[in-house]
Design a protein that fits this description.
globular, 248 residues, binds iron/sulfur cluster, 2 domains, 5-stranded mixed beta sheet, Ubiquitin-like (UB roll)
């Protein structure tokens, strides 16, 4: 399937979104709530682009728009810039101190009237990526709760959740670093709960929680060696090198 983005032709596969084709080809479409490996959420709306089919054109969110043969996409127009500025302004009002929002403010030269800025130190933009990450794991420990201005991501009743395994996937996927994860003396604290950390048997660094390991072992029905990702990669690379030397 062929589509055009900013005048150049690109190949796409049926079922792909505009964002997937753009990212694969190194085309920058701004987004906070899109992450590779996750289906688009269309929440932050920063990825607005213009799509033309024949004589008709419309503004769509690239992260949720499935490509069609022959469409022509424009990633920057005066109208799109104006819309993105409005969206950034709303994000700024919600999370005025957040460094990621501040980067966008600078890039798009957005200026918010002082009297509208609410300084309540909330970095969350309610995109829901963390909730998706937790759902994908199968833990479903957090969700978007409440409505209107009290809407937030939380565990049920803000209590420490028995379903949370302290894996930190939610914090890792958060585009604005809004989820607080602290580690000290072998304990990780997240969502009001403390978790024992486990050390890598090779490098000796803490790398995950006991609950997360147990969860994975139960899922895979196996007892794996406790090795962190970095050491796993190193060991695979050296095994590969050994077999390569053996051949030659
Ligand atoms: S740390 Fe808890 S809430 Fe966050 S993704 Fe893991 S299980 Fe879900």
């Amino acid at each position: 399937m062929l589509i055009k983005i900013d005048g150049k032709t690109y190949k796409g596969h049926p079922g792909e979104t505009l964002m997937e084709v753009a990212r694969r080809n190194g085309i920058n479409i701004p987004s906070l709530c899109y992450k590779k490996g996750f289906e688009g959420l269309g929440r932050c709306r920063l990825c607005l682009v213009e799509v033309s089919e024949g004589k008709r054109s419309k503004i769509v969110s690239a992260c949720v728009y499935p490509i069609k043969e022959g469409i022509e996409v424009t990633t920057i127009t005066d109208e799109i810039i104006k819309m993105r500025k409005d969206i950034i302004l709303l994000l700024l009002l919600r999370a005025p101190d957040n460094e990621y929002i501040q980067q966008l403010v600078k890039e798009y030269e957005v200026k918010a009237p002082e009297r509208y800025i609410q300084n309540d130190n909330d970095d969350c933009i309610l995109c829901g990526l963390c909730v998706k990450a937790c759902e994908k794991l199968g833990t479903k420990a957090i969700s978007l709760v409440n409505r209107g201005i009290t809407k937030k991501v939380s565990t049920p009743y803000d209590d420490p959740s028995k379903d949370c395994i302290g894996c930190g996937a939610c914090a890792e996927t958060c585009p604005t670093n809004a989820i607080k994860l602290e580690e000290s003396n072998g304990i990780r604290t997240i969502w009001n709960r403390d978790f024992d950390l486990v050390k890598c048997s090779i490098c000796g660094k803490y790398y995950t929680t006991l609950d997360a390991l147990k969860f994975i072992e139960d899922k895979l029905a196996s007892n794996e060696e406790h090795i962190c990702d970095t050491c796993k990669k190193k060991s695979t690379a050296s095994k590969f090198k050994e077999s390569f030397q053996h051949i030659y």
